[in-house]
Amino acid sequence: MTLPQHQLLYSGKVRELYAPLHADGTVDESRLLLVASDRVSAYDHILDTPIPDKGAVLTQLSLWWFDQFAGLAPHHVLSTDVPEQVVGRAVYVRRLTMLPVECVARAYLTGGGLAEYAATGSVSGVPLPPGLADGSRLPEPIFTPSTKAPVGQHDEPISLEQVVGLVGPRLADRLRALTVDILDRGNNIAAGRGILIADTKVEFGIDPAQVPLSDDGEPQWSQVDPDTVEITLADEVLTPDSSRFWRAEDWTPGRTQTSYDKQVLRDWLTSPDSGWDRAGDALPPALPGSVVELTRARYVEAYEALTGQTFTPAR
Question: What pTM, to 2 d.p., does this model score?
Answer without folding.
Answer: 0.93
